[in-house]
Each structure stands twice: as structure tokens, then as C-alpha cells.
């Protein structure tokens, strides 16, 4: 028994003298310095008495010491817990009072805010009611004005509708008149178109006839040129040729006048729509007269063009038809070609002598430049 108590006390002393971290925390929280000193004093007394008293007495004494120490420790712990509990109650009472004061202040503030909000809400409600009354009054005025305007618009619309119906009726009558006029105009246009086609066909026929007569005239001109060359070989009298030339000029002017009159007559025939058959016979007769009158024509259009070119040219190069920087060979060849067309013995057109003189002078000046 003594051994058992001794082991218990040694283990307790070990825990007191060499505690672990967790045990140290627990001992520090439960035991104070007085408790430790009491426990150590009891252990020392226990060891002293074991030498002088028997085993039974020592065990009883040990039990008494342990019980006393436990009562002391439990009473101290109870006192400590009561003190801590009282401290906690005091702290909770202070916190409760503080919370009550805050709640009272907060309730006072909330009441003030509620009063302000109620006042503001009432003001806003009054303002909104006033605005609604004003808007309602304005909307009623606008509705009345719109209603008056709509009535005016409806009356105007009905008046315009009547006017439009009357104008549509008049427009329909005018459209009928215009349709009738357009139908008549289309018929007249078709008639005029047919007449135009007939006139064009007659004109084409007359033009083809004139072209045939022109071709015949050109063939006769070639024959007359050959005959003229024979006559020039047979008769070298320049005076007779000059007389014939003057006569031919007069005849040519008369023929030109007749040709112009015939074309004018054709235009007049187009406008007046006279009988084309009679006029075509007259045109054929005039063409035959032109052929008869042109039997004595001794010069061609090419010769006349050459005379006009020589008389109207501005420079000697243009008269001979050569470029700047031409050689003597080019000048002589151009002179030979033009002299055949312009020489008075071979060209009976008016102005041939003057043209031949201009050609000769141009040749001489260009040959001097080439040197």
C-alpha cells in the first residue's frame, strides 16, 4: 500500500517538477504557488512520518494529507471560478448597459429620421399631387385644343375631298379629250409616215437614176477627152480653143444653175408632195440636157484642183507637195507631175496660165535653195 502511494506521489512530483508543454499549461491554469507549496510540504511530512510511524498509520496519514490537499485545491478553484464568474457577470452587465444606451440612441435617431422621412414624403406627395393636377389641367386643355383642331382638319379634309373629286372628274374629261386627240394624231402620224416612206422610195429611185446618168456622163467625159486630144493634134489653133473654152465656161455656169434649180425643185417637191412621176421625167430631161451641154467640156476636176492648190498654197513646198529638205530630184519629179496637169496646152481651165507661172517660179526658187 505504501509502495502504491509512493508511486502515485513520485509520478505527481515528476509532473510538477518536469511537466510537458500541455501539462505545464494545465498546471499553471489550475495550481497557484500556494497550492504547490502545500503539496510539497505534505509530501515532505509524509516521508518524515513514514520513518516514525508504521505502514498503516503512514497510509492513513497520506490519505488525510491527499484529501486535505484536494479539498484545499478544489476550494481554491471554486473561489477562483466564482470570482471569474462574478467578473464575467459584471462585464456582461456593463456591456448590456452600454448596448442599452446605444439602442436608445439609435432608436432616437431612427425616430428622428422617420419623422424627417415622413415630412419629406408628405412634401413630395403634395408636390406630386400638385404636378398631377397641373398636368391634368394642361392635358385637358391640350385635348380640347386637339379636338378643335381635328374638327377643323376634318372639315378642311371634307372640303378638299370634294374639290379633289370635282378636279378628278374634270381631269377624266380632259383625259378623254386628250386620248381622242392623241388617236387622231397617231392616225395622221401613220399617214404621214407612209407618205414619207413613199417619198423616200421615189427619191431613192430618182437618186439611183441620177447616179446612172452620172456614170454615163463620166464615160462620155472620157470619150470627149480622147476626142479632145485628137482635135488638139489636128487643130493647133489656140484662138478657137479659147473661144470654145469661153463658151464651155458659160455653158457650165448655166448647167450649174440648172443643177441648183433642180435640187431646189426636189426639196420643194418633198415639202409640197406633188407628183413625182412628172417631176422625175423633168429631172431626166434636164440631165439629158446637161449631158448635151457638157459634150464640149475640155478639163477635169483633177486639173481644177491642181490649179486651186497652186493658187491657194502659202509656201513653195506646199505648192509642189514636197517636204522641207527635199533634193533636186524630188523637186524635178514633182514639177513634172504638176506641169502635166497645169500646162495651158493640156489644161483649158481658167487660171491655168497663172498656175503654170507660179509652178515654174516655185521650182526655180527651190532648186536655188537645194544648191
UniProtKB/TrEMBL annotation:
GO terms for cellular component: endoplasmic reticulum membrane. SUPFAM superfamilies: Chaperone J-domain. Keywords: Coiled coil, Membrane, Transmembrane, Transmembrane helix. One of its GO terms (biological process) is cellular response to misfolded protein. The chain crosses the membrane at residues 38-67. Residues 315-371 form the J domain. This is DNAJC27. Gene3D superfamilies: DnaJ domain (1.10.287.110). GO terms for molecular function: Hsp70 protein binding. PROSITE patterns: DNAJ_2. Residues 82-272 form a coiled coil. The keyword Membrane applies. The keyword Transmembrane applies.
